[in-house]
């Protein structure tokens, strides 16, 4: 007996729903080892609902099917109305004359004015890309170059990289004594502000010598490797910046890189990067040239691309999904520190002690804490771990954000971005007070 069209469509819908659920399970439990299950809860829930609806549709009668279809259509229409509201709401947070050019388009335009300009191109690009014949993993950017960073306030931020490709005035490396060495990701790197508004620059304004080794996209293992390669004697304090939303996620990617793993298994391992900056520069420049040649960003018309981007985001209900994810982050406890993470911090503290330096763990809160009054993340596991290792813990949420009448004022336009200049300044001031 042949199947009716309704049955065929229903079983096909069920098959697709099951595939969606299985793929979610693979990404959450196998690929990421269950470490970021919170990030996949929405997709678990959504795929489970789809499976239930498929079974319901298969075994229901025509009248119920009609109600079912009307309900589904109503939900979809409702989601798109929510999306329109969020788009309109977020559009109020922007400013006139906001430079909306994508980073690569801006880079190409700037290159017409200065052929030596470059853009931020960090270690994370190479995590899954041992993509050079010299088997060298850069832990910094291109040296002595005008570097385009990012744009969250309306204009792109630039910085002149130092001799090793980091975001420092080059003469800092000539100092004999250093008050601070900094490691971290984009927040510590200084996104998306210019000097003197990043954390390292604010500390320098207090007559401190500061070397900033942080880089966009870095995770814990890269930060430890960077310390191993670039740490100098006569450093009083090492500031380890940890951003709660993605640092442990970065660690799962870092552990798949054979070069980075060497820093964990061999305490004498080094790439000797201090003496290989020319090679680092060439490797990164070659990768940027490849991007230009392949035209990966496919920029033909900025205006048309922006229209297409907005249409795609609307069809995918991007803002609505992001809001749901933020809510889930707030009502569910965050991930706990892993044994690998504790081992890295133990080794970093050991390195600091051997260098006669003191290591501070600076815990940076995520934006989603402040969008509503949901339960706050529990960071006691991190505090207990640092106490066990012997690292002083600086809780930026407790020290700064909880004391603000409007914590969102420390983000550009109150939106989900990096901190703004005021936020960075307050963090630097607290660190200075706590490390005296």
Structure notes:
- This protein is α/β, with parallel strands linked by helices and 436 residues long.
- The protein folds into 2 domains: 5-91; 103-434, SGNH hydrolase (Rossmann fold).
- It has helices spanning 5-31, 37-59, 62-91, 103-113, 186-189, 199-204, 220-230, 247-254, 258-265, 277-294, 302-315, 318-331, 339-354, 380-389, 396-399, 421-434; strands at residues 118-119, 146-148, 158-160, 178-183, 210-212, 235-243, 358-364, 392-395.
- A 5-stranded parallel beta sheet has the order 5-4-6-7-8. A 3-stranded mixed beta sheet has the order 1-2-3, covered by helices on one side.
- Helix 7 (220-230) runs parallel beside helix 13 (339-354).
- The radius of gyration is 24 Å and the shape is globular.
- The N and C termini lie far apart (83 Å).
- The model is unreliable at 299-304 (pLDDT under 50).
Quickly describe the structure:
The protein is of the alpha/beta class and 436 residues long. It folds into two domains: 5-91; 103-434, 3-Layer(aba) Sandwich (Rossmann fold). 50% of the residues lie in helices and 8% in strands.
Task: Write the topology of this structure.
Layout: H1 5-31, H2 37-59, H3 62-91, H4 103-113, E1 118-119, E2 146-148, E3 158-160, E4 178-183, H5 186-189, H6 199-204, E5 210-212, H7 220-230, E6 235-243, H8 247-254, H9 258-265, H10 277-294, H11 302-315, H12 318-331, H13 339-354, E7 358-364, H14 380-389, E8 392-395, H15 396-399, H16 421-434
Parallel strand pairs: 1-2, 4-5, 4-6, 6-7, 7-8
Antiparallel strand pairs: 2-3
């Amino acid at each position: 007996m042949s199947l009716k069209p309704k049955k065929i469509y229903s079983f096909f819908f069920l098959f697709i729903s099951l595939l969606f659920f299985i793929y979610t399970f693979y990404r959450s439990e196998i690929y990421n080892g269950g470490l970021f299950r919170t990030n996949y809860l929405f997709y678990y829930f959504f795929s489970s609902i789809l499976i239930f609806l498929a079974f319901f549709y298969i075994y229901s009668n025509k009248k119920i099917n009609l109600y079912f279809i009307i309900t589904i259509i109503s939900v979809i229409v409702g989601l798109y109305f929510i999306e329109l509201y969020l788009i309109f709401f977020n559009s109020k947070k922007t400013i006139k004359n906001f430079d909306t050019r994508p980073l690569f388009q801006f880079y190409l335009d700037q290159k017409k004015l200065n052929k030596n300009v470059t853009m931020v191109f960090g270690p994370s690009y190479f995590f899954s890309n041992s993509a050079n014949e010299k088997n060298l993993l850069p832990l910094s950017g291109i040296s002595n170059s005008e570097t385009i960073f990012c744009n969250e306030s309306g204009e792109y931020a630039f910085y002149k990289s130092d001799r090793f490709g980091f975001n420092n005035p080059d003469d800092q490396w000539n100092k004999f004594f250093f008050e601070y060495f900094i490691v971290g990701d984009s927040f510590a790197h200084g996104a998306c502000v210019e000097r003197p508004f990043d954390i390292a620059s604010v500390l320098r304004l207090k007559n401190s010598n500061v070397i900033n080794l942080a880089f966009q996209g870095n995770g814990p293992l890269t930060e430890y490797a960077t310390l191993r390669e670039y740490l100098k004697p006569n450093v009083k304090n090492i500031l380890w910046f940890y951003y709660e939303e993605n640092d442990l996620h970065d660690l799962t990617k870092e552990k798949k890189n054979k070069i980075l793993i060497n820093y964990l298994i061999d305490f004498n391992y080094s790439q000797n990067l201090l003496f290989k900056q020319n090679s680092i520069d060439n490797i990164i420049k070659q990768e940027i040239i490849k991007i230009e040649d392949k035209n990966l960003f496919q920029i033909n018309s900025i205006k048309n691309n922006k229209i297409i981007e907005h249409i795609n985001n609307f069809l995918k209900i991007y803002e609505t999904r992001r809001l749901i994810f933020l809510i889930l982050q707030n009502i569910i406890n965050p991930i706990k520190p892993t044994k690998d993470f504790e081992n890295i911090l133990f080794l970093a503290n050991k390195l600091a002690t051997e260098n006669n330096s003191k290591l501070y763990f600076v815990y940076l809160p995520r934006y989603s804490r402040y969008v509503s009054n949901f339960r706050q993340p529990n960071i006691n596991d991190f505090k207990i771990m640092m106490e066990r290792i012997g690292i002083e813990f600086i809780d930026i949420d407790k020290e700064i954000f909880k004391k603000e009448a409007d914590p969102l004022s420390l983000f550009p336009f109150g939106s989900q971005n990096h901190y703004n200049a005021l936020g960075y300044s307050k963090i630097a001031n607290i660190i200075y007070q706590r490390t005296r």
